[in-house]
Structure formats: C-alpha cells, structure tokens
UniProtKB/TrEMBL annotation:
Source species: Parvibaculum sedimenti
Reactions accelerated catalytically: (6R)-10-formyltetrahydrofolate + H2O = (6S)-5,6,7,8-tetrahydrofolate + formate + H(+)
Protein's name in the database: Formyltetrahydrofolate deformylase
Pathway: Purine metabolism; IMP biosynthesis via de novo pathway; formate from 10-formyl-5,6,7,8-tetrahydrofolate: step 1/1
Function: Catalyzes the hydrolysis of 10-formyltetrahydrofolate (formyl-FH4) to formate and tetrahydrofolate (FH4).
C-alpha cells in the first residue's frame, strides 16, 4: 500500500440512478486503479446520490490527473455528476476565526501540531486580541479585525480578502461570536462551518447554556454545522451530548460544554479534511472514517 503520495479520493454527487457504482468502478478498473475504500448513499427523499472512493494507481507514477479527468468525463456527463479528485498528500486549508473563548482553537491547534489533524492552517482571524499569543506560539499568522455595527461590512470584506489571499478552502468559526451577513454567507456557501454550543435545534443564539439551564434539560451538547444566513440553522455535520442534572449550574454546564464543543468541532474538521462530508439540501451526508 503506497503512502499518501499516490493516494487519491474521488467525490461524486449526482441524481440517483441505476449503474452509477458499476460505471465508476468500471472506469477505475479500466484505468488500472486500485480501490482501497468506497462509500455511497442514495437519498430516497432528495433522489440524490453521493459517493466517496479512495484509490491508488497499481503502477506507481502511472497516474495523471489530466488523463483521469479526460477518461472520467464521459461517466460524469452520462450521470450529470458534480465530482472532484483530491490528492491525499495535499493538506486542505482551513482559516480559523475566533473571538475570546480559546478552548476550540486550542484543541484544533494541538491536533494540528501533533499531526492528528492533517490540515494546513494559513491564518487565524479574530475580532479581539486575546488569542494572538496562542497563534504566535504556533507560528500561525494572526489577523485582528475588530467588528462594530459601523465597521461590520468593511470587517467582513477584509476577512473575505484574507480567505482569498491565503487560498483557504474552508473557514471555521471556532467560537467566533459575530453573526456573518447574508453576502458573506453566500461568498462562503458550503465551505464555512460553525461550532454552536448547544444540541441544535434547541437553544439557538448567543447564550445557549443559560437557556438550557433555565429549561432544566438533562443533556447538553454541541453542534457543528455549515454557516448559512439563518443563524444556527445550517446543515448539521456533527453533534454530541453530555449528561447533566438538576444540580448542574450554568457555569458547570459551560465548563462541561467546552470539552464537547472542542471534540465536535475537531471531528467535523477531520470529516471535511477527509472529504467525507457532502451537502444534501438542508442536510448532510457524512461517511464514516
Ligand atoms: N450567518 C451566521 N453567522 C454566524 C453563525 C451562523 O450560524 N450564521 N453562527 C455564529 C455562532 N453563534 C452561535 O453558534 C452565535 C454567535 C453570536 C451571536 C450573537 O448574537 N452575536 C451578537 C454579538 C455578540 C458579541 O458581540 O459578543 C451579534 O452578532 O449581534 C449569536 C450566535 C457565528 N456567526
């Protein structure tokens, strides 16, 4: 089994139909490509089909992405596919956005530093200076973009410029506590995710633990979701819960929630980096790792 240098991941989504898997596998076989892992799902509601196939060329060095695109093109056209080919050796790039809370950023940076999360982090952006030292410790460029009602549009324009300049593929709101405008959400559609500190759809908004405590819940949680104009309504990628009781104070909920938020966000970033996440209307398809 070759290392990452010869591993590829093919991701496909298209209207569901008979013969898709056979056509894809047949093309890969014809190109002498060895499938190491493959997952697929057809949604009976959206009538949409999703497939993720990992493969490597049998003969090292015999594979060309241009030739693959040429050969695969006929299959893609026949089924109306949206498809992408990802080289496993190329680390996807995630621009991180934070405010003052450091637990999600700290966790992502630890996994990045220890190579548990094979990604590239070109920049950390914040509307406060509190987390600049953490970025400097990891030698990651830090950009302070304050946000007020008056500067919001310019601040978001600068953030989008940084996404372009750093060529970040994804944007992660790692407890970034400003609501992004519709325009910015459109610019980042399908490539920006947020960690919300509740088990959505319960307790949307800025203070979910206070809402949870007031409601007297017995489970708290966290949700990683795509960012859309509708606050905390985006398609869900990952969720997790933690048991609490009548004795649990709001501060204890916030403390317990930190670990849940950090884990949920790290799992969502890992799933995106592994090319296992697909948008499926208001929902997602997330293939297991
Ligand atoms: N367009 C979107 N932007 C953001 C989303 C989203 O789903 N869509 N998620 C939030 C994160 N978040 C909850 O997870 C959240 C953050 C902030 C607020 C809020 O009301 N903020 C106030 C300002 C608060 C402050 O200055 O500290 C506001 O923006 O007026 C609600 C929910 C990130 N952005």
């Amino acid at each position: 089994m070759p290392g990452n240098e010869n591993q590829y991941i093919l991701t496909i989504s298209c209207p569901d139909a008979v013969g898709i898997v056979a056509a894809v596998a047949g093309l890969l076989a014809a190109e002498n490509l060895f499938i190491t892992e493959s997952s697929h799902f057809g949604d009976p509601d959206t009538k949409r089909f999703f497939m993720r196939t990992a493969f490597h060329p049998v003969e090292t060095g015999a594979f060309g992405q241009a030739r693959f695109a040429e050969q695969f093109g006929s299959v893609a056209t026949r089924f109306g596919m949206e498809w992408r080919l990802h080289h496993v050796g190329v680390r996807p790039s995630f621009l991180l956005m934070v405010s003052k809370a450091d637990h999600c950023l700290n966790d992502l940076l630890y996994r990045y530093r220890t190579d548990a999360l094979p990604i590239h982090i070109p920049a950390i952006v914040s509307n406060h200076l509190d987390l600049a030292p953490l970025a400097q410790q990891h030698r990651i460029p830090f950009f302070h973009i304050p946000v007020t009602k008056e500067t919001k549009a310019d601040s978001e324009r600068r953030m989008l410029e940084l996404v372009e300049e750093t060529r970040a593929e994804f944007v992660v709101l790692a407890r970034y506590m400003q609501v992004l405008s519709d325009e910015t959400c459109r610019a980042l559609a399908g490539r920006a995710i947020n960690i919300h500190h509740s088990f959505l759809p319960s307790f949307k908004g800025a203070k979910p633990y206070h809402q949870a405590h007031e409601r007297g819940v017995k489970l708290i949680g966290a949700t990683a979701h795509f960012v859309t104009s509708d606050l905390d309504e985006g398609p869900i990628i990952e969720q997790r819960v933690e048991r609490v009781s009548h004795t649990t104070t709001v501060d204890q909920m916030i403390a317990a929630g930190r670990d849940v938020e950090a884990l949920v966000l790290a799992r969502a970033v890992a799933a995106l980096a592994g090319r296992r996440v697909f948008l499926n209307g208001k929902r997602t398809v997330v293939f297991a790792d």
